[in-house]
Structures
1.
Amino acid sequence: SKQTKRKGLPLPPGPRPLPLLGNAHQINTSQPWLTYAAWGKQYGGIVYSRLLGQDYIIINDENIVKTLLDQRGAIYSDRPVIATYMNKMCGIDFNTSFLPYGDLWRAHRKIFHQTLREDKAALYHDLYLRKAHDFVQNLINFPGDLETHAETLTASLIMAVTYGYETQIRDDPFVNRVQGLVDIVLQTITPALSALLTGLPFFERLPEWFPGAAFKRRSRLCRDLSAEVVERPFQYVIEQMAKEIAPQSMVSDFHRNAIAKGEGDQDRVLKEVAATVYVGGFKTTSSNLHSFLLAMVLYPEVQQRAQAEIDAVIGDDRLPNFDDRAALPYVEAICREVLRWSPAAPLSVPHATSNDDTFNGYYIPKGATVILNAWGIAHNEAVYPDPFHFKPERHFTADGQLKDDSLSNNLFFGSGRRICPGRFFAERSMWAAIVSVLSSIRIEKARGPDGKEIEVRPDFTTGMVIYPKPFQCSVTSRSATKEKLLRGKVTA
Ligand code: HEM
């Protein structure tokens, strides 16, 4: 056919006809990355499939990810048209993540680069630690609500770094508004839309997906909420700046510079970028923290080894800080293993080609959705033996050195020009939370009334972003001194 013969080259191999919908039993509908990984084994590192007239290229190999998404960034940096459409439907047109590859997207990335690149993300070290200490105290006081604590930590970090705004522990007006918007977005990103984004359904049968009355109501609510999410916190910073009491933040930083350079007209883009931080950073970061807690419950020997490392370096009379980071390689390996063991975005965020291309003798059509199967790569036993086992040791060389890799330069933050611009901030806030938890508390399986341990299974939700299903655990303080130190740092 015309499709397969263009340039005389075949499309990459893949299942034909696609065993889809009619043959739903052949695919795993709740974890499409499993199906993609199986296709990877059968057809190779690059696979072609087609759904509802759309071309999908699925990549199951890290080297191919680098070659295409990274080295051929000029072709592989667009987003699928359906993603842009989804932004509109959810009332979040401001969202950088789904903007088409073009000038507006470039203006967004420029602001991210100026405010959250590595040296800028490092300006907030005290903040990451202070919020991490609040997190540990919440875990000690209310161990039954891990997910809420992970989300509270993430929300308060995001609001502080973006706007210099200190959130209230409960019912914060800004957080509630953004949370409302995130909830609507999650409701709107139905399984059907996810299917179009990722090429495989997250559902058994094709449901109704076209906008009905409920959807129209929702989208009006979305637009109102969205306008507030973009405007209100920004105005807050401008007011704080006028009173000269605005702390360091992404918005105050950029705004001050822009005014100094006579570029005050960048405000609209700045507002949109700031509002995007929540959309991009909230569920992903809290998912990783939640997975870390789950791993610690399931792998007590890993927890003990990390605690021994921390105790040897830090002792009992202070808490860890960023100066200790290089001396704690095992903690570093735990952070890497969290990202690998349970990638928060198992299929990353889909890219799209803005031109035809050829690769290894295959034809890659323009407009194809390109999927990075992050979960599949992370669980390829040829690269990561015993892939379901949480094993920080795998990040060390045979002679005991931490492998030459950095946490932020990691496939699980995506690849190429669209790579996650929040990775330096995410990486540092994750490290601060993980090292603070390990140094101050012990997390274990909870015990039932019969005194027996309550079993915990590593079960995860499904969707574009995944996180552990609720599990029980017990939390105990490791040291009275550290508990006091934690409290000493807490803001009223
Ligand atoms: C551990 C936490 C996080 C993980 C695992 C993560 C992961 C990702 C991934 C996989 C992508 C897609 C990259 C690609 O298309 O190749 C992405 C994009 C993005 N992330 Fe993150 N992210 C995290 C935290 C954050 C934070 C804290 C922010 C905000 C500061 C953020 C903002 C964004 C934005 C704006 C994009 C879209 C970039 C674009 O389309 O150009 N992320 N992230």
Note: The chain has a mean pLDDT of 88.
2.
Amino acid sequence: MDTLTLIRPDDWHSHLRDGSALTQTSADMARYMGRVIVMPNLVPAVTNARLAAEYRQRILRSMQTTARQFDPLMTLYLTDATSEADIREAAEIDWLAAVKLYPAGATTNSDAGVNSLEALYPILATMEEVDLPLLVHGEVTDQDVDIFDREAAFIGEHLAPIIDRFPKLRVVLEHITTRDAVDFVKSAGPRVAATITAHHLLLNRNDMLVGGIKPHYYCLPILKRRQHQEALRGAATGEDRSFFIGTDSAPHEQHAKESACGCAGVYTAHASLEFYAEVFDELAALDRLEDFASLRGPDFYGRPRNGDTVQLRRVDWTVPATIPLGDSELVPLRAGETLHWQVVDAGAP
Ligand SMILES: NC(=O)N[C@@H](CC(=O)O)C(=O)O
Ligand SMILES: [Zn+2]
Ligand SMILES: [Zn+2]
């Protein structure tokens, strides 16, 4: 198989950032993604519908072309101060897709995140009532918990109780990295889903740490051992429709990653579908890519599948060494390396 035509995919977890970064990040996303769930971890955070509307306008204004519909779906950043009114207002807006939970201190720009999840149970009850999904960065932040165990600990300590207490709340465990997460999502039924990034499918912690530390592979949740990577590969290419695409493409300037204290986040928006194709090809599962990238996400979110297609071809091409990011630049995943699939027809520009 040398060409592959897919219903246009969407990206159900992405960081576009703001200001001059949007020129690059929006263009990379809009090249072939239909809808993008835009993460709200700006500084200051996107905590209510008004801020989300303003951010969405900045994204749309940054687009070079509006010929094809590129649909940014926004999220609200859950804080200790989120009110029931914030949730009810958000639920009325079609382009406002979900509410995002960052445990305070868990990841990039999570300082404004949640300190006590239990204190927010009344807010989760409202979300359940109005059917606004909860998206979760699922890691505990206790200093005593090893960084490689933080996702599994979160599932047991926080996610399982939420699922039990709010039986109708739709939940997406974002960017899963462990077999524990795969098993949990499988056992939790169709209202609990998970996104899987391309880099967690492509890489494990040996890639990051053996033979020298690779700061451009550092992200959160951190890459895990190979057995966990294999569980993610099994989930992405398997039968369970709860697992779908979410790139977690997260740009940081080159100097901020190549630093004594490097930022967490991997940029994949320049070739996200190509990366997934590479993994699915390696697993002889290219026939499953459309379900993962284009069908399961809209089905979970209760939104229509896209009506047009994109085409990939098996062809060697080289990823640029750097990509502009505002006045600076970033180092994209697989910078300077050869990829074997390329989107050759992205539909209308
Ligand atoms: N994944 C990351 O390592 N970083 C993300 C934040 C996040 O998704 O946790 C970012 O915003 O840079
Ligand atoms: Zn996250
Ligand atoms: Zn993210």
Note: The radius of gyration is 19 Å.
